[in-house]
Amino acid sequence: MTDETILEMLFARSEESISAIDEKYGHKCRKMALGILGNEQDAEECVNDAYLGLWNAIPPERPSSLAAFLYGVLRKLSLKKYRANTAGKRCSYYSDALDEIESTFASAETVESALEGKYLVEAMREFILTLNEENRAVFLRRYWFMESCREIAAALGTSEKNVTVRLTRTREKLRKFLEERGVEI
Amino acid sequence: MKAEKILEALGEIDEKFIEEAMNYNMKKKFNWKPIIAVAACAAFALAAIPVANHFANNDMVDGGTTAGTVAPVPGDEVDDDVDYVAYEYSVNKGEIIGNHVVELKVSKSRGRYVIKDKLDTQKTVYLNGMEWTAKYENSWSETDYKVIVDRYTGVCNGRNMSFGVNSITGKCEFFMFKTTGDIDKTVKLTRDELYEIAYDNFLSGGYTEDPENYQLSDECSNGSAGYWFKFTRFVDGIETSEHVRIGLRNNGDLYWFVGNRIGEMKDVDVSGFDMDKIYDAIEIKVKKIYGDAYVDFEREGAVLRKRTDGSYVFDYSGHIDVKNSYGKVVQERCFLIVIMD
Description:
The complex is a heterodimer.
Chain A: H1 3-11, H2 16-37, H3 40-57, H4 66-85, H5 93-104, H6 108-114, H7 117-130, H8 133-143, H9 149-156, H10 160-180
Helix pairs in contact in A: 1-2, 2-3, 2-4, 3-4, 8-10, 9-10
Chain B: H1 2-10, H2 15-23, H3 34-57, E1 86-89, E2 104-105, E3 112-113, E4 123-127, E5 130-141, E6 147-156, E7 159-166, E8 172-175, H4 191-204, E9 214-223, E10 226-235, E11 238-248, E12 254-259, E13 266-267, H5 275-290, E14 294-297, E15 303-306, E16 312-323, E17 329-340
């Protein structure tokens, strides 16, 4: 079933649209939520919440990409859940992703104070544009979809080592990029 | 926390980059050299031996597909009368997005393929190091009732091979070779060929009195009834809701479907007709198509119409319950048009 058809079903308030979405994107959603939360039950809950979020948002929203919209909603919900769940304990791919980013940036407070809210968002948007297609795919799969390096390597048809090296270089590039914008790291 | 802020900010990037990351495949940039292909073919041939032995010892392949003989390897002579042999790979249903085979992580060291855009007629596919020229096909196996397989057929070393996703089981099925028999129900036309046939049929088919006012949409749609093109009527340059659709059913038959009372076509007062007889006639046709898999046929939603040539059209759009070979009842949507004298 095409995304367009699913969107039409959502606009027609057909509950079958949710089944169709689950059929089409459920597996990827669960995998992504699990990557962030590290807990199947929580992941399932977030996926269901994301479907509900989608149901409530469409209409009036008509996203150009249903998948990206859904994953975006799911990512936010999963991160929210992660924050609620974790107080010091880390147990997922998201935790690993956090560790990797933190190891690149020395001081937490500086980044927070200098790049808050929209400014940080804008900076990240600009940074993404500076990456080539390959590195962007690797970077986003790791830090947007929270996939493991092994999963990324398998998905992109390259070695795990290649992915790791690309990620290290990209993180370093991000650090320099933010520095150049006057952010003391 | 800085890392969380950064990862959160990353969540706000443009959706197009998300799509790009989802679909990106480094392998498309690989330049496979012929020697690799040859070596891989040899490896494939070796790998096929245990599979062949497996099938030689088992008449029934997983998934209920009847296996005929040992799977051939590249270089073997293929007997056209032989039934096909199927081999299943472990692929989760969730890994399949709609009809698109996004990525199949194939077990048994078979390599990996990444295919997108089902309506593209030609795709380069890498399987076990071999470069294929693959074509998307939507096939229908009648021996294995109602298992619709969206599959790709490719040519490697001059041999037809195909693989695809069984939409009922969600598993990838790999057909070692394509032979005659029911699998030949596969839609064999490319999109362009279908376009041409649709257009020719429309002009000569008498579907409407004013074909010159119709425009053929460039878009080829793929629905449960198969592929189809749409001809839309324009009056004084304004698009109307009247249209004719011509296409291929999943079983490979050419069909046409009239929408929105083309021309003089009008709904007919059915009081003068023995509707039960009409329904019976249709059920016989349905049984002929669906065979023993036929379970139930809803007698609702049908409209009787009169065409400009005086014949009647029973325009049915509904669902038929059928059982697949795995015993699961699945609903197939169908469009039946019966032309009565």
